[in-house]
From TrEMBL, chain A:
Gene3D superfamilies referenced in this protein's UniProt entry, alphabetically: Periplasmic binding protein-like II (3.40.190.10)
Keyword annotations from UniProtKB, A to Z: Signal, Transport
Name of the protein in question: Bacterial extracellular solute-binding protein
Entry annotated with the keyword Signal: yes
Source domain of life: Bacteria
GO CC terms in record: periplasmic space
Signal peptide: 1-20
The keyword Transport is assigned to this record: yes
Automatic annotation (TrEMBL), chain B:
Protein name: AraQ protein
Membrane topology according to the record: Multi-pass membrane protein
PROSITE patterns named among the record's database cross-references: ABC_TM1 (PS50928)
Organism the protein comes from: Jannaschia aquimarina
Bilayer-spanning residue ranges: 12-35, 175-197, 204-225, 237-256, 285-306, 341-360
Domain ABC transmembrane type-1 stretches: 169-362
One CC-aspect GO term: plasma membrane
InterPro entries per UniProt: MetI-like, MetI-like_sf
Localization in the cell: Cell membrane
Chief location category: membrane
Keywords, sorted A to Z: Cell membrane, Membrane, Transmembrane, Transmembrane helix, Transport
Family label: Belongs to the binding-protein-dependent transport system permease family.
GO biological process: transmembrane transport
From TrEMBL, chain C:
Family: Belongs to the binding-protein-dependent transport system permease family.
Cited PROSITE patterns: ABC_TM1 (PS50928)
GO cellular component: plasma membrane
Entry protein name: LacF_1 protein
Species per Swiss-Prot/TrEMBL record: Jannaschia aquimarina
């Protein structure tokens, strides 16, 4: 196998020589990028002959994108990096760790599993000072630090953020029907009724996701939680200091039910909510005539729009608004991926250092699907206004909170909460659902 | 006599019909997937696969070009809707609101208000007149068209063209062939010993095999991986063969022993009386006579290992060098193309092609073996 | 009899030729591996590497049985000289253990050892540090989802083997005398070749809650003009819709095995019954079925065991929602998170199947006498 690996590496090297310069997505020195940060990084490190293995959840197009960023790290340091992505990255990592040969670095999409792995001793702490760096350079830095920290030690470096509080719509469909983008949650509810009165269906909601069926509903409930309760209550709920069946949480669940459990409000009727695949769900926006006018989903969803759909032209988004009457500001719900390392070495330290350069963020920003709270990056490198606007939602948030289900223990956030939401949309009582989840939570404490 | 013949033919009819019904019931789901694998994502959600061979009336969207020619104080935009969209077929109606895509008949001029008008000819040529210079976004045109049936190989190109698929194919074969043959060999010897040899604790061992049949695979994965790591095998092809062998053995021993017990006692005993050792009895008599059972178990074990995802995931290293097809499809392709039914369908067919081929070629031997087995 | 001996002799010669061929290949491969040039060349060719590993793996296995028997008969207990008779007896006492050694070594290591280890693990808590006795089991007993899963699982364990065996038997019998029987058999067997992931995909198309995608709903609309429903959300019956997927897959297995057994039935018994005026149905149920009862038990057992292990269908189709949870997919919820509870569920699964196991062991005891 070693022979095989080295010949492949040879082939890659040769291919690299054949189109020298062509393997970097942007020629160094050109464009609005912060090339100084790249150059000073390149001067600082020489890791020729060293290799770095990274595994993560990004596959397909996302893998190509992360590879394009890694190429600059390789160019700058001479190290050889192999990134491999898997759709079931979490179990793969657990297995590799059990086998005693985990990758040198990994990208965790959920902090919950990272905490488990850290407590089992599979991860190595980040270099000292990373926390201070985040506080200084990331917008709302403290919350990022706490995201990557387990038992007072920092293990995860947040990189690539998703914003969840978004509603996607087709601007022309709104124009043709004379609808305005709502600025408040009250107006959103009015618009919903208006669309029904006009004979249309306002929402496409799909919770289907195979074994993970139900997770899109958790985002809804979390967003509703932030729009009906102060952020401290949200934090208490995520930490289970506020029980799942308390009136605050039950109310948030019912706020979600206001939209999802009304046969007139959702495409296909309430029954379809639980069975429609979340990937198929936004398709209703683009049907002729439209099956729905709005779809609430995170920044990643354009991947599942029909081929050739142009962001900003064919489809656009608005911020999932807050209640005007609640005075809770503009809360934003998000999720982020975390880089961790499993060994303390020059090459992993260098890569973490690389992630702290603006260029490591700008390179991906300039392509697609990348948001960052890093304040030093140049927003001009975003290829479209849409993406710039998305990033502004992130940086303008008065309250920023992480996806609560990611922070809850796995049995709840990736189990009981999901199935509870499916039970709820298929007719069970919100209070009973909350009580069942709470019971489960108490059982694991 | 007539009566019996009449009954026979009507019975024959009934048998034929019920088999046809059963076969149809069994293949329709698969046919649905097969047809869908040749259609693109939009077609799949637009109409059922059973309608695929017929032309369908479908609604489309297009946008007028942004290049306008000034004509007096208005701007005229011309073009063809079929070029501005992916639609094909015959135009039947058009509109400017997505809730009414067939508002206007072809050939008429639609007055859109504000001095704007739109007309579309039967061949798709449109003329859009507007008092304002169009911006980045052209005017939306919706239209319905009668589309002829269309099939595409694109899904298969995507699946087969995915990087590393050829390597994954070879890796899968490397995993499955030894993982099929080794357990059968080992199990055949053990099954013979358990069926025809006298030794202490035989009953206990049979009970053990039956008991181990039910051990859930998931239970054994992680402890075994730790064991492999301790031995220095780690995650490798050797490890995956050993794992498949271990997991496949109880059923192999169980099925083969049950078959071998049923072999005619007199042949084996007379051979033993003639002075043949058990090794000779086994290789000369039992093995050839058990061919049907061996062949059928081989087919099953091959199918299981070929379709296995879990064992490969745990016991093979990550990365393309040891990626098997199920994993390539499940972890690499489906993750990035999750919502694309066409891709999923063709991926499923790519992965079952070899098992089907093996079954259809082996089946001849299977039937021959079965017939030989009945001559006793 | 003479003809039979002849063919056996021929197949023995064939068998020996195969063994020599594989031995030779092994030798060549081993020598080739020692030459660095060849290794370098192999490094470039995954196909060659694959073939080589296959030859080594399979060859090693054949080599063991062949060599160990040679050593036993020729070296340790040679059937020659003064002790010839005694040696043959001794060799025959050792031989069963030679035959079963690899199988039971593998079984012990790959199944028995994890079972014992897992049982111990199931007595510990989530972190694996604290001994809690049967605490995990007690917790399971009071969990409503677990109760549901046990109920559903018992349904599965009854319905799927019964359904598969029934359809398999019917298919085997009906296709037996048909001119296109083999084609029909192949088509019914086809789902066996499809992975569980593929099968789930196929049935998602069938059950889709959209008359434009799912054929079930299209049929309902066409025949009854009914609105589309999601079959997987029809409480209680959705379990049967999921079971049908596994029946669909496993019928091929039952059919192949049962069809072999049916052909093994002596013609005379069937002919005698027909002469006595038995109807085809009577022949089938009164003459044929009793004669292949042993095979039916084997098929039934095999499928029952499979049912209790397969989690993929429920896991990918409904994720255990809508009241369709079964134990294997319930267990999966705890895997990698709380191994104590996961292993406890596994032992409950093993408990459910104990009656079938005991029955099989009794059956095996009977055969031996």
């Amino acid at each position: 196998m070693k022979h095989l690996a080295s010949t492949t590496a040879m082939a890659v090297l040769l291919a690299g020589v054949a189109n020298a310069g062509g393997h970097l997505a942007f020629a160094p020195g050109e464009g609005d990028f912060n090339w100084d940060s790249y150059n000073s990084f390149a001067e600082q490190y020489d890791l020729s002959g060293q290799s770095l293995s990274i595994t993560g959840p990004w596959t397909g197009q996302d893998k190509d994108l992360v590879d394009s960023v890694i190429a600059y790290f390789e160019e700058a340091t001479g190290a050889e990096v192999e990134y491999s992505g898997s759709d079931s990255f979490e179990s793969d990592f657990v297995i590799a760790a059990e086998a005693g040969n985990p990758p040198q670095m990994a990208v965790f999409p959920q902090p919950g599993l990272m905490a488990d792995m850290a407590r089992q001793g599979n991860l190595v702490a980040l270099p000292d000072g990373t926390g201070d760096w985040l506080r200084e350079n990331y917008a709302a830095g403290e919350s990022w630090v706490s995201l990557g920290t387990v038992d007072d030690t920092m293990y995860g470096f947040p990189y690539k953020i998703d914003v969840k509080s978004l509603v996607w719509y087709v601007p022309e469909a709104f124009e043709e029907a004379g609808y305005e983008v709502p600025e408040t949650l009250e107006a959103l509810k009015e618009l919903t009724d208006q669309i029904v009165a006009d004979g249309g269906t306002p929402w496409c909601i799909g919770l289907g996701s195979g074994a993970a069926t139900g997770w899109p509903a958790t985002d809804w409930v979390e967003d509703m939680m932030l729009r009906t309760q102060p952020p401290e209550t949200y934090d208490a709920w995520v930490a289970n200091e506020l029980p799942f069946d308390s009136p605050e949480v039950v109310n948030a669940i019912e706020e979600f039910g206001y939209f999802a459990r009304n046969d007139d409000y959702v495409s296909g009727g309430a029954e379809a909510v639980a069975s429609t695949d979340f990937r198929d769900s936004p398709g209703g926006l683009f049907e002729v005539p439209p099956q729905c006018y709005m779809h609430k989903q995170a920044t990643f969803i354009p991947t599942f729009f029909p081929e050739g759909t142009e962001l900003g032209l064919d489809v656009d988004f608005f911020y999932f608004p807050a209640y005007e009457g609640e005075d809770l500001g503009q809360p934003v719900l998000g999720a982020g991926t975390l880089f961790v390392r499993t060994e303390e070495s020059d090459v992993t330290a260098a890569f973490l250092d690389f992630l702290q350069t603006p260029i490591a963020h700008e390179l991906w920003m300039a392509q697609s699907g990348f948001l960052t709270p890093y304040t030093e990056v140049n927003p001009d490198v975003f290829p479209t206004d849409t993406q710039r606007a998305l990033n502004e939602i992130l940086t303008n948030a008065t309250t920023f909170r992480f996806d609560g289900s990611d922070l809850m223990p796995g049995e709840i956030g990736a189990g009981a909460f999901w199935t509870g939401m499916v039970d709820y949309v298929t007719g069970e009582d919100a209070e009973a659902v909350g009580a069942a989840i709470q019971e489960r939570w108490e059982a694991i404490q | 006599m007539d009566n019996i013949a009449g009954r026979k033919s009507s019975l024959n009819w009934a048998v034929n019909l019920s088999v046809i019904f059963l076969v149809l019931l069994w293949i329709i789901p698969t046919v649905g997937l097969l047809v869908s694998s040749f259609r693109d994502r939009d077609q799949i959600s637009a109409s059922g696969w059973w309608l695929a061979p017929f032309s369908a009336e479908q609604a489309y969207r297009a946008r007028t070009s942004t290049e306008a020619t000034p004509e007096g104080d208005i701007f005229v935009v011309t073009g063809n809707v079929f070029e501005e969209s992916e639609a094909t077929g015959t135009l039947s109606a058009f509109g400017v609101r997505s809730i009414a895509p067939g508002e206007f008949t072809v050939g008429t001029v639609a007055d859109l208000g504000d001095g704007e008008s739109l007309s579309i000819a039967e061949n798709g040529d449109y003329e859009f007149r507007t008092p304002e210079e169009p911006g980045r976004r052209g005017q939306r045109i919706y239209f319905t068209a009668e589309t002829p049936p269309e099939f595409t190989l694109e899904n298969y190109e995507t699946v087969l063209g995915a990087g590393g698929m050829a390597q994954a194919f070879i890796n899968t074969l490397t995993v499955t062939i030894p993982a099929t043959i080794i357990p059968i060999l080992i199990a055949a010897f053990a099954a013979y010993a358990l069926a025809w040899m006298q030794f202490p604790m035989r009953g206990l061992l049979i009970a053990l095999v039956v008991g181990l049949l039910v051990v859930p695979l998931q239970l054994a994965l992680v402890p075994l991986l730790r064991l492999h790591t301790e031995w220095g095998i780690g995650r490798s092809f050797l490890g995956v063969w050993m794992a498949h062998t271990g997991f496949g053995l109880p059923l192999a021993i169980y099925l083969l022993r049950n078959y071998m017990v049923g072999l005619p006692r007199d042949i084996i005993e007379s051979a033993k009386v003639d002075g043949a050792t058990d090794f000779q009895v086994f290789t000369k008599i039992v093995l050839p006579l058990s061919f049907p059972a061996l062949a059928s178990f081989a087919i099953f074990q091959f199918l299981w290992t070929w379709n296995d995802l879990l064992v490969a995931k745990v016991f093979l290293p990550d990365g393309d060098q040891a990626m098997v097809m199920t994993r390539k499809i499940a972890d690499d392709l489906l993750g990035s193309r999750g919502g694309d039914w066409g891709i999923l369908a063709s991926a499923a067919f790519v992965s079952i092609a070899v098992p089907l081929l093996v079954f259809f070629t082996m089946q001849r031997y299977l039937v021959r073996g079965l017939l030989a087995g009945s001559v006793k | 009899m003479a003809v039979q001996e002849d063919t056996q002799g021929a197949s023995f010669i064939q068998g020996q030729a195969v063994i020599w061929l594989i031995g030779g290949l092994l030798l060549v491969a081993a020598i080739a591996l020692l030459l660095p040039d060849v290794r370098g060349m192999l490094g470039n060719s995954p196909i060659l590497q694959g073939v080589l590993t296959i030859v080594l793996g399979v060859g090693g296995c054949i080599g063991y049985f062949w060599a160990s028997n040679i050593v036993l008969d020729k070296v340790i207990f040679p059937a020659k000289g003064a002790n010839a008779g005694k040696n043959i007896n001794r060799a025959n006492m050792v031989r069963p253990w030679l035959f079963i050694f690899p199988a039971f070594a593998a079984l012990g290591l790959y199944l028995a050892y994890p079972v014992v280890g897992s049982f111990i693990r199931s007595l510990y808590d989530r972190s694996g540090d604290t001994f809690i006795g049967f605490g995990n089991y007690a917790w399971l007993m009071q969990d409503s989802e677990f109760q549901q899963a046990v109920f559903n699982n018992i349904l599965w364990a009854l319905v799927v083997p019964a359904g598969s065996t029934f359809f398999g038997l019917v298919a085997a019998q009906l296709t037996d005398r048909l001119s296109w029987g083999n084609i029909a058999k192949s088509l019914i067997f086809m789902p066996m070749a499809i992975s569980f992931v593929g099968a789930s995909l196929i049935w998602k198309f069938v059950y889709a809650n959209d008359a434009d995608i799912g054929i079930v709903n299209a049929f309902r609309e066409w025949v009854f003009g009914a609105d589309s429903v999601d079959p997987l959300q029809v409480s209680f019956w959705n379990n049967f819709f999921l079971m049908f997927i596994l029946i669909w897959i496993q019928t091929g297995f039952a059919m192949v095995i049962l069809s072999a057994a049916l052909r093994g039935i002596p013609e005379e018994t069937v002919e005698a019954a027909i002469v006595d005026g038995a109807s085809p149905l009577q022949v089938f149920f009164k003459i044929k079925v009793p004669q292949i009862m042993g095979t039916i038990v084997v098929v039934w057992t095999t499928i029952t065991i499979l049912v209790l292990k397969v989690f993929d269908i429920v896991y990918t189709m409904t994720g255990g929602n809508f009241g369709t949870q079964i134990l294997p997919s319930y267990m999966f919820e705890f895997m990698f998170r709380d191994d104590g509870r996961a292993t406890a569920v596994a032992f409950v699964i093993m408990l459910i199947v104990t009656p079938v196991m005991v029955w099989n062991i009794i059956q095996a005891r009977k055969e031996m006498r």
